[in-house]
Amino acid sequence: GVMGCLLLTHFTQDHFLTRFQKVGLTLTYLRSDASLTRLKGLNILVDIGRYRLVSTSDEGEELVASALEKAILHMLADPHEGVRARAAFVSGNLHLKSAVPILEQMSKEDDILREVALLALGAMPVTPITPHPAHLALKRLSKHQKVIDQQPLALSIALGRQRVHVGDLLVEIYKTHLTENKQTPHHESRAIREAVIWALGELRDAVYIQALDQALRDPELTVRCLAALSFEKMVVFESSTLLRRAFESSVKEAQCPQVIAPTQEGVKALVLIEKKSYQLALMRALATTDDPRLMQWMVDHQEGIDPMANRLMYKYYKALEKQEKSGLLDSLKRRISK
After folding, report:
1. Which of 125, 289, 300, 323 has a CA that sits 20 to 30 A from residue 334's CA?
2. From CA 1, how far away is CA 9, in angstroms rounded?
3. With bands split at pLDDT 50, 70 and 90, how would you rate the model's confidence at 22?
């Protein structure tokens, strides 16, 4: 009878017995005296996947087995640097709230593991009402000059993921890395600007419209692509003029490559922007503005452009035409006339 119940649970609850055995084996690895064995245990946790290691309480709180959580926290102070780095990654992946103070301290004091600690904090969940401890930790870290100077890329990604409203800092980071800097290689400066502009889009705050306008004129296409995406997220009427100007100076051959954030091996990468036509990215952003002036503008600029952008232009023209007939654009027309 007991065995029957166990087998029933095994097959109806995502192979419960297999997961139980794997976690038990992993704990044995994590408690080993050999650093490579402890590292193997952490890698097994990544392979198992968070959805098999995390349960949810009746109150909606995410829970990890107590023994496993304690073992991972212990690994954050491991004498082996590689083990600490992987433990930080696992802590973020499993959303271990108890790891936040350690990760914050690591971000401040550990020059080698600062990047992975910041990214782990960014990977924590975003809570809609009460800020997550990781959100508050990153807000404090955004005032730590050493963190800003040494890990602007990881900090920008983490701030964007947690939607920490420190946009002025992000703008300053962008400006710092827009000019040539002998201490920062060109490709790193580009990656930092990409992360900053993506993070500004995650804030959805129209106060940073001028910073995004500057990014639309960035020398790097990837940054301009991310600026278009951020405008799309903002959904602000005032961006129409800036986006139209950027479209008019673009070429149909320009293609935005996929841009991904830095991460450790074992989880799906955070994609900052998918591969697409630059003109399509601009048109998608324009389609959020509901600017009545776009009707004539689209007629004037429909020739010789990217085919996907052209299709969206036609579709959006029809949508605006319908809104105009129903009077939904009247308030915007009055706003323009003023």
Report:
1. 300
2. 12
3. low
Task: Report d(CA 33, CA 288) in Å as an integer.
Answer: 57
pTM for the full predicted model: 0.90
Structure tokens belonging to residue 157: 């990604």
- CB atoms closer than 10 angstroms to residue 336: 12
**Of 160, 171, 238, 173, nearest to 208 (Cα)?**
171
Count of CB atoms situated within 10 Å of the CB of 73: 15
- The pLDDT tens digits for 158-182 are 999 999 999 999 999 999 999 877 6
Strand partners, 45: none
Cβ within 8 Å of residue 270, ≥6 positions away:
157, 161, 260, 261, 263
Q: Is the dihedral of CA 295, 297, 303, 306 positive or negative?
A: negative
Q: Tell me the CA distances in angstroms from 228 to 160, 285, 287, 302, one per residue in order.
A: 16, 6, 11, 19
DSSP 62: E
Q: Which helix (DSSP H) or strand (DSSP E) does residue 277 occupy?
A: strand 276-277
Find, among 264, 261, 249, the residue nearest to 157 by Cα.
261
| Spatial CB neighbours of 333, under 8 Å, sequence gap ≥ 6 | 292
* Tokens describing residue 303: 């020739």
Structure tokens at 314: 């036609």
Q: How far apart are CA 183 and CA 26, in angstroms?
A: 42
